[in-house]
């Protein structure tokens, strides 16, 4: 285990309505994020009550989570891009400290 070189990054977990997926991924792409994972059909309880994830006729009607690992210098520009959006739409961004073993996958 001594040969593993770990590098610090920030993990963003962005939860929003599926209809806004294109907005969120476009913002991340323009910010220079190298990749992300999208999870759909989320369930949970928040300020607007309980939301049950299940397959619907339209994927726009479900909650999604976009997970991205980014360098710290990208966090503020990404948050600035999402702030006006979250002033008008429901959703949240969780930010946490993580470590990754293959930094080249996350930095340019």
Describe the structure.
The protein has 108 residues and is of the alpha+beta class. The chain has one domain (7-105): Alpha-Beta Plaits (2-Layer Sandwich), CATH 3.30.70. It is 24% helix and 34% strand. The protein contains two helices and six strands. The radius of gyration is 15 Å and the shape is globular. The two termini are 26 Å apart.
**For the residues shown, what is the average pLDDT?**
88
How far is the first residue's CA from the last residue's CA?
Answer: 26 Å
The fold-level CATH name is: Alpha-Beta Plaits
CATH architectural group: 2-Layer Sandwich
Helix content: 10-25%
CATH class: Alpha Beta
Q: Let me know the number of strands.
A: 6
- Please outline the major beta sheet: 4 strands, antiparallel
Q: Report strand %.
A: 25-35%
Number of domains: 1
Strand arrangement across the biggest beta sheet? 2-5-1-6
Give Rg in angstroms.
Answer: 15 Å
Number of helices: 2
Shape assignment: globular
**Parts with pLDDT < 50 across at least 5 consecutive residues:** none
Question: Structural class from helices and strands?
Answer: alpha+beta
Order of helices and strands: EHEEEEHE
